[in-house]
């Protein structure tokens, strides 16, 4: 029997103990702790990936995946050549003018993020201005009432978010006033704000409560009035062929147009995006500490085995086994236990995530949208990270037992037995 096979045989022998099974029942607590830790890490990662994907889909269904602006933040003029170039690269584009305005209906006053758009082009990148559909989680997305494709919208019309229209108590055809919060129109009575009387042409839903409370759309011509533009726009929205990888398309566009500022959807609401990423990493670290605690069982199990087999280990040293050989023996034992725990954790977590993905047993509150099933997205990077981190913690957890192992003096043990 060669040394490596001998180490493996002894490792399995120590795992079996006096029993007949593959592993003695005293080691199952160690395996259970590792399994629970891996299961928690994978499940948390899958759910956090699902939440990120769900938020991304909700944001990009209304605002597109990529936004292009002038690097200095100034208005963009002569943008048609840029639009033509992007269209030639296979992207859908829409020019936008963004205004922070005030809506007045009688004595009621509401603030709104008002986007000036070309409705024909914008309908290609924003599902909020398309036909009414149901999202996979049962929310309504698209135009609820009215239309933005005809002259009723282009000639003094406005499209309101569903919650904004509900709070104002308006319906399609009602007239409201749009006011700029900036007083920049000189008159004989001093500076006054820009004001337009518009009619409600459509009411839409974005499946995002915050957007439905604050978003509205008007034509580019109406939006230019509030910004005092003459053919300029604020930015260009870009819809990619593959919505799952906007980062790659952002990099491609940035390389083609180095003098422009190109941002993906994560920059639209940087605080929300950062919070999602931070929460995932925070939960991962918390669950990792849970795994570290579980690894203490492995350390204790190794120390117990060394204490019980102290005389046998001393004899092995007397027969020529080096410290490195004995370290390899217990390292194999630790790797066998951790491998079983990791494998069981991967299987159990995958089954749990598949059940959640297809049956939606667990739900979360989503404001006015009601309870929604926790979304799940699998990521091979999460699996790889968990496996590597688990084995790394396993190696660290056996350092103390190995130090205790190196202190065994075979001569003293032989003297004690004689």
Helix content: 40-55%
**Uncertain regions spanning at least 5 consecutive residues:** none
- The general outline is elongated
Strand order of the largest sheet: 2-3-9-6-8-7
What fraction strand?
15-25%
Features of the shown structure:
alpha+beta, 22% strand, 2 domains, six-stranded mixed beta barrel, elongated, 418 residues, 52% helix, two-stranded antiparallel ribbon
Commentary on this structure:
This protein is an alpha+beta fold and 418 residues long. The chain folds into 2 domains: 3-57 and 273-417, no CATH class; 66-239, no CATH class. It is 52% helix and 22% strand. The chain contains 15 helices and 13 strands. Strands 2-3-9-6-8-7 form a 6-stranded mixed barrel. The protein has a two-stranded antiparallel sheet with strand order 12-13. Helix 2 runs antiparallel to helix 10 and helix 10 (270-308) packs parallel to helix 14 (399-406). It is elongated, with a radius of gyration of 32 Å. The model has no long low-confidence stretch (mean pLDDT 84).
């Amino acid at each position: 029997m060669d040394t490596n096979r001998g180490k493996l045989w002894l490792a399995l022998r120590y795992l079996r103990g006096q029993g007949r099974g593959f592993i003695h029942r005293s080691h199952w607590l160690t395996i259970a702790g590792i399994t629970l830790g891996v299961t928690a890490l994978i499940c948390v990662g899958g759910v956090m990936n699902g939440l990120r994907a769900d938020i991304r889909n909700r944001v990009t269904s209304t605002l597109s995946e990529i936004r292009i602006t002038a690097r200095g933040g100034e208005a963009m003029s002569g943008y048609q050549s840029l639009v033509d170039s992007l269209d030639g690269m296979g992207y859908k584009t829409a020019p936008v003018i963004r205004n922070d305005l005030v809506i007045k209906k009688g004595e009621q006053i509401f603030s709104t993020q008002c986007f000036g758009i070309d409705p024909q082009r914008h309908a290609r990148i924003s599902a909020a201005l398309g036909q009414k559909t149901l999202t996979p989680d049962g929310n309504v997305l698209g135009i609820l009432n009215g239309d933005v494709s005809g002259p009723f919208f282009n000639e003094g019309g406005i499209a309101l978010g569903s919650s904004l229209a509900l709070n104002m108590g308006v319906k399609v055809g009602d007239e409201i006033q749009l006011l700029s919060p900036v007083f920049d129109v000189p008159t004989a009575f001093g500076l006054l704000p820009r004001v337009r009387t518009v009619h409600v042409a459509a009411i839409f839903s974005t499946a995002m409560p915050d957007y439905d409370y604050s978003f509205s759309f008007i034509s580019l011509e109406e939006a230019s009035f509030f910004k005092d533009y003459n053919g300029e726009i604020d930015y260009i929205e870009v819809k990619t062929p593959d919505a799952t990888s906007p980062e790659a398309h952002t990099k491609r566009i940035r390389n083609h147009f180095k003098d422009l500022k190109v941002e993906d959807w994560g920059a639209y609401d940087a605080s929300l995006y950062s919070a999602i990423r931070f929460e995932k990493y925070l939960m991962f670290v918390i669950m990792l500490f849970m795994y570290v605690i579980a690894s203490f069982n492995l350390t204790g199990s190794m120390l117990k085995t060394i204490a019980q087999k102290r005389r046998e280990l001393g004899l092995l040293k007397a027969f020529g086994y080096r410290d490195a050989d004995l370290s390899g023996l217990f390292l194999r034992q630790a790797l066998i236990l951790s491998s079983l725990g990791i494998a069981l954790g991967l299987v159990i977590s995958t089954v749990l995530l598949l059940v959640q993905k297809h049956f939606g047993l667990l739900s979360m509150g989503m404001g006015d949208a009601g309870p929604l099933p926790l979304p799940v997205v699998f990521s091979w990077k999460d699996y790889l990270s968990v496996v590597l981190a688990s084995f790394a913690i396993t190696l660290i957890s056996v350092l103390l037992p190995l130090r205790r192992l190196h202190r065994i003096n075979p001569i003293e043990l032989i003297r004690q037995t004689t």
